[in-house]
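Hi team, as promised in this morning's meeting, here are the two structures we talked about. I've kept the exact order from the run log so nobody has to guess. The first one is mostly here for context; it's the second one we should focus on when we meet again. Sequence first, then the predicted structure tokens.
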Amino acid sequence: MTSLAFSLFSAEMTLQWTAVASFLYVEIGVLVILCLPFISAQRWQSIFKWSIWNRLSQFWNKGFLTMIIILIVLFLDALREVRKYSSTDQSKDAKLHPNMFDHMHMKLFRAQRNLYISGFSLFLWLVMRRVVTLISQLATAVGTSAALQTQAESANKAAKKYMEDNELLKQALTDAKGEGGKIQDPEENKLLKKEVQRLEEQLKSSTDALKKSKSDLDTMKKQTEGLTKEYDRLLQEHQELQNQLDSGDKKDN
């Protein structure tokens, strides 16, 4: 009888639970690929922009919600089976019949296995969508940060150029003055003053733009750091869940 029980333990899963288990392993594989450190977020974003994903995007939300509903239903069904075969009444009845006791333990084992499979599948399905969203946000933040950095550098170069031109104009005004501090050519002096005023206004606007760019750059850096921390946290949770799943498979074996 004991050999019969072990043979029942090793029997294949039903079609629906085989599909859920396969889906779970696919989720783990996709998450491992998404977490590979040598593939940058910009590369993933370029992959997400392929035309095939644009065609599937209109069905993505419906498919995502449908899969959540299916996994929740399977999880609740497995939970019901676990509670059913863990009840004390059936345990008392099973003790009276040794064969029935082994059969009850087999049913309980399968229910617990199905509970773990459906629960981890549901959790990793949510984690996978969150990881994809974080990767897209991180790529956007990095691209915006690079653009702001380029803009700040160009504004800094323009400000330096205007300052150098301002110094040259001041030097020209000093050289244009005659003895006693009088200006030899009033018209030329007026033109120089207007030019200096114009350059000072441009310098001021460039300085304001540079300050604004630096402020935006600091803000984007903080957002990027937050996204990176969240990405690392999800990666750590995924590793812990994978370790738990591996340990659960070892126990089942």
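And here is the second protein, the one for discussion:
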Amino acid sequence: MRRARAPARLLLVPVLWAQLLCGSVWGSELTFELPDNAKQCFYEDIIVGTKCTLEFQVVTGGHYDVDCRLEDPDGTVLYKEMKKQYDSFTFTAAKNGTYKFCFSNEFSTFTHKTVYFDFQVGDDPPLFPNENRVTALTQMESACVSIHEALKSVIDYQTHFRLREAQGRSRAEDLNTRVAFWSIGEAFILLVVSISQVVLLRSFFSDKKTTTTRVGS
């Protein structure tokens, strides 16, 4: 997968390319920072007939929304959503070439976003070369298939909860910052009120100087 040059600063640079059990499934998973008024595009070479899935989620920033757009090699828009927090889109490549998908934060003026996406290319290959045979699988093969499916579910759950943990941490840090500023403001107001009360009370008990005017005869 190729990434377009843009001013976005990547938080997690590694792009994970993995082939599952020597099969033909390729996947790229990335978490990056998308500044305000910025757009970040990625490119993927796909063979015709390949099933692909794009999943994304805004982890931190603003209202947790971002624009997403997916185009085929001819520039035809396959998927377009505005201000989405998270979504998933599955399609089958109709032609060979380079597909482009972009995330845009151009509608935001001040808020940076942290975006996670997972782009899977191809179907999961069978665990065993003869898994689709007419005869039944052995008990050992069936157990391996069940464990394999369970492990994939565990990976999905781990990713989901990792993203939720990141969102929760971001919100907690934002709330902590607001509480800290509110506490500082309350302390300042309390100090001003205390000083004002002391000055006011001292004015009540201070000796007032009286002026005497003599009238000459």
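Starting points for discussion:
The chain has one helix and nine strands.
Confidence is low (pLDDT under 50) at residues 5-24.
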